[in-house]
Amino acid sequence: MHGIEEVRSVLSTPKNILITSHRNPDGDAIGSSLAMSQWLKKKGHRVMVAFPSEYPDIYQWMPGIEDVQIFDVDPEPIAAFCQHLEVSIILDYNSLARIDKLGVFLENRDLYTILIDHHLYPDPIGDFILSDTSASSTCELVFRFIEVFDRSNLTDLNIATCIYTGIITDTGSFQYSTSPALFRSVAALQEIGLDTNAIHDRIFNTMDEKNLRLLGHCLANRMEIIDDFKTGIIFLNKHDFQVYDIQRGDTEGIVNYLLKLKNVHMAVFIRQQPTIIKISFRSKGDFSVEEIAKNYFNGGGHRNAAGGYTKSSLAATLDLIKSILPQYKQQLNKPIL
Q: Strand order in 112-117's β-sheet?
């Protein structure tokens, strides 16, 4: 890693360190932040993890989560900690726009900044940048980072648990963005005694009844398959949010059910929220949904997984998505296997 010796020097003495990740943190954002926090604390640093907004309840069990600060809930502890801030660690995002008002604590400051991320087009906001778009997850990169410094800390089961959580959530349980290097990393975590079955159960087998009923509603009443363009669409309107009491994290993973269909090469999941329409895209094979998210929906992400938003109506959003499909017809109809 270029510049790692400078980082080693910076972290050689105790520092006040703020770790941040993006709004609506997912398993990778949370896992990488908690793993990095626990590793730094073991080295004697004073560390705070701060997210712009709350995280889904399914991650409430994770080691160290009780110390996470949420800017939307209470910005004061974050502001107080940042008065003496020396190092900023940016995880699973690469533009300060992704953390909204929390970014004011990192702008125009005399901070040493470490950026670790796997998304496309990083802004030049780090003194040390570990950016690899081929990596499965930011947690995989955090594993590499810690391994370079001190492999012995990767025998810490709490750190291993956090890293593994981010890996399995961002890869869809090893369906996407896998590599030999990733499986070697996971093997190393298992060798220290990591209980991977327990982690899978906590994340994937603790669904509330309302969530299973919501999934049934999506598949039975809100799903449209557009055969000519190998595309599946699911949408939820404001009424659905009220009826099913949809909270943060309740819709996680629903978009992936569309990809279970052999004739669907692109999946689109649309949620009508109070002020914006949020859209998630997934794809099979070489088809890039990142391009669609970026060009039409103020978003981005990865080739096979991306997201965006619009301030249009739900009907207008559906119409726009359907209107752009013809230009991608040849790519969408390309055989996957």
A: 69-70, 46-51, 16-20, 87-91, 112-117, 128-131
